[in-house]
């Protein structure tokens, strides 16, 4: 997997919370892809 700099501490915290709640990474990645209009 390609290593990228975190976009912001807030988004990193949000991603950690999603993971802790059992949300799949792929689902979150798809959401972010739609939100920002570019793939991760």
- Please count the helical segments: 2
* Helix/strand order: HH
Give me the Rg, rounded: 10 Å
Oligomer: single chain
**Percent of residues in helices:** 55-70%
Task: Explain what the structure shows.
This protein is mostly helical and 40 residues long. 60% of the residues lie in helices and 0% in strands. It contains two helices and no strands. It has helices spanning 9-20, 25-36. The chain starts with 8 loop residues before the first helix and ends with a helix. The model has no long low-confidence stretch (mean pLDDT 72).
Question: What topology does this entry show?
Answer:
Layout: H1 9-20, H2 25-36
Task: Name its key features.
mainly alpha; 40 residues
What's the gist of this structure?
With 40 residues, the chain is mainly α. The protein has helices at residues 9-20, 25-36.
